[in-house]
Sequence to fold (661 residues):
Amino acid sequence: MIYSETDGRNFSLYIDDIPVLSHSPDCPFLSVCDDKSFVNRLLTRIPISGIRRKYISLDNVNYDHERSILRFSRGSRSVSFSVRESEGTVILSPIKPLQSFSHLRFGFKAIPNEPVFGCGGITSSPNLRGRHINIRGGSSAIESEKPRPMDFVGKYSGGSEAVTPKFAVPSFFTASLKFYSFWTGGSSYFDFSHSNYFTADFDCTPEKIVLGKAECINSIHKHQTELYGKRCALPSKYQSGIVAGITGGSKKLLETLDTLSKSDVPISAFYIRDWTGTFAYNSAEREFWDWCWNKEHYPHLDEVIRELTDLNINTLCYINPHLAMEGRLYAEASKSGYLIKGADDSNLLSDMGGFMAGHIDLTNQSACQWLRQILIDNVFSLGFSGVITDRLDYLPKGAVLHGGTTPAKAFNYWPALWTKIIRSAAEQCGLDPVCIVDSGSIGSSTSLISAKGDRVDWLNGNGLQSALHEILSLGLSGAGPAHCDLGAYAHLIPEPLFANHLIRWTELAVFTPAMLTHTLLGFSQSSPEASRDVLFQMSRLTKLRYHLAPYMNLCIEQFHTDNIPPMRHMWEAYPDLENSHSIDDQFMLGDELMVAPVVVAGQTSRQVTFPDSDTWVHLLSGTEYQPGTKIVDAPPGSPPVFYKKGGSYESTFASLAYKTL
Fold:
């Protein structure tokens, strides 16, 4: 039951005697930025995270219980919500106001120093306390291969530079399990830097706000499923070997198959990035964004895919919602009016890192039907069982979308529109597709999320750590299984650290939902197959992965049935463990394996925290550890991984040391 209490100055809204919304003079629930102000109209051109706007708190709060309407007002300014209860949560739906506001700010009382989690893939630390999180409502900058000077300034200046995750969700929860979720396509800015309150700023009124308090973390994850919808599958075969990234044509594919087979590296799938052909840019080769099979670059690809299928090896391809302007599909889409337009009604082109491309308008249903048929004819009918896609976080701000929708209000839903088309095309071909993405937001239906970490961190030897943070943050946010894209930023690793880093990278990848080797055209050292030492360790560790497959599949199945992430932050698994919220360099894989990867360059040992009440056994050495903090040896090829003594998989884990020698 929903009811309210007020003394004229302070207001609280309860559900089943649990306060979920509060308002007070020192922490107003809702403040507005009046768009009639000349200064504020000028500031709307500045990113939401970059300025200080003048907000006016709506201090008068009234809840009409009979009509279930909650109204915030001050003078002529007013914002109202319809209120309803659903499964122990309060849902606020805005009622269209007579007056519009350029920005809204919501305030929430906070417990000092209480950890906060969510908002998507955060590469710094999963605990958001003290941070500023910016969830964009417009275009994302095209990522260059090397970090720009300002990347370093923003990361190391010590200022309040906002974190902008690639997979970004306007939702968070506290360690006391209060949760706050906002359905909006626009940009938002979350400020967790204050001791006694949080704020959330929006450039348009959220379509829905969900507030509540859960009894356990599993209930939080159940609530989060509504944010994402139906997930794409990740077949069990992906746990038995690597997903090998390929560029360079059919010859390179067959050579890689031979090399990996001779090195006894099990293969689950091949991922072909340049199946559409390539073009030269700055002495490097880039894939051609025209989503048609290039028969010169990959002759007999259809036959190769069928032969790989007979070997129980899947094949994935690369694709995204952008089209190179030199391609056949660009011309076809342009003629039919399927591309995003600019203000002058011409096709809006963007420099995508050395070439110009147009953008398919995913709000145009005719364009979506055309794209769906392209996927059926060119991707799934060719034999590909799924796709790996990126650049979903790029939607030009100057775009004029079909039907008058503004990019600022569509940005968060853009990845969901794309993955919905992929699923629809695959289902038409009788497939439950594998869909792997590196960015997304509300409604994104994915099989797996690629966590690459922060580019700046890769240059100073901490890239693996930032990738692990991103994975754990995605799990806490309910986004789904995530993995470290093995080799994604290999070209940024300093040469002296390169071989050691790839081995450590492989050690981490073994204990993620997929071992996918990235391929980056033009950077020969980024291919893990190029190093003999890495191949040897990859062979050992992939065998370990093969024997862990039943357990890994159980972890992934648990996610699909109970919404619990396979890789779990230590706080989620052991909330009563002292300072578990700050342990962000080790994690639980399922209920019985604890993984403490070496993520700092050059380390040969590391500190591990062993939770209370359990005895832990080193997976490879058999050494037992009691609760407490210990220093554990970790030479390359021997990651610190431990299983619970007495667990249901103890006999399986105990046999692995001998199977991977």
Observations:
- The first strand starts at residue 2 and ends at 6.
